[in-house]
Amino acid sequence: MIVEDPQRTSEIERKTKEVSIVAKIDLDGKGISKINTGIDFLDHIIISFSKHSKIDIQLNAKSEDGIKHHLIEDIGIVLGQAVDKALGKREKINRFGNATIPMDEAVSSVSIDLIKRQYSHLDLKLDREKIEDISQEDIIHFFQSFIGNLECCMHITVHYGANDHHKIESAIKATAVALRSAIKIDPDSGGGELPTTKGLM
User: Fold this and answer.
1) Which end of the chain is more exposed for a tag (fewer CB within 10 A), N or C?
2) 9-183 is classed in which CATH architecture?
3) Which parts of the chain sit beneath pLDDT 70?
4) Domain extents for the chain?
């Protein structure tokens, strides 16, 4: 009897006095996205993440209090929770992923371990206080919120670059490609096997 792997999908809804967010994802998608955050550069970042991770993402977000920081933070929270939920027990995955991606003059590297032991190292080397329509601190907080709610270990390093937009693009693309590798099902794994010697992710 052939037992098919369950679909690795999830839906997360977050509604507070500050935001209303609904996200649906499919880890085994084709990188198709429909994103509406009301923040153009954030839309661009998430669309790029979806495209290069091959994770299908539908996300609608609305600010209820008009404070951009709350919206950006909570979108990072929801995306992290959605990927975490879709991963289930994290059985049979590669677990590790790494990528180095250029964007014109900028180059970034990302290393990921999907063990449920949260740690983040961010070195984005941003110079300007505002990049497009997002403050530097909100961009950093978006990454931190995503990583913390995904519950993983992730190191993101921009090696160099002259343009802050390009630094962020190379960083999000490297994150996507590294995550794409980490979430992939290992064809050599046994039935229900966890990729850890501890027996618990």
Assistant:
1) N
2) 2-Layer Sandwich (3.30)
3) 1-5, 190-192
4) 9-183
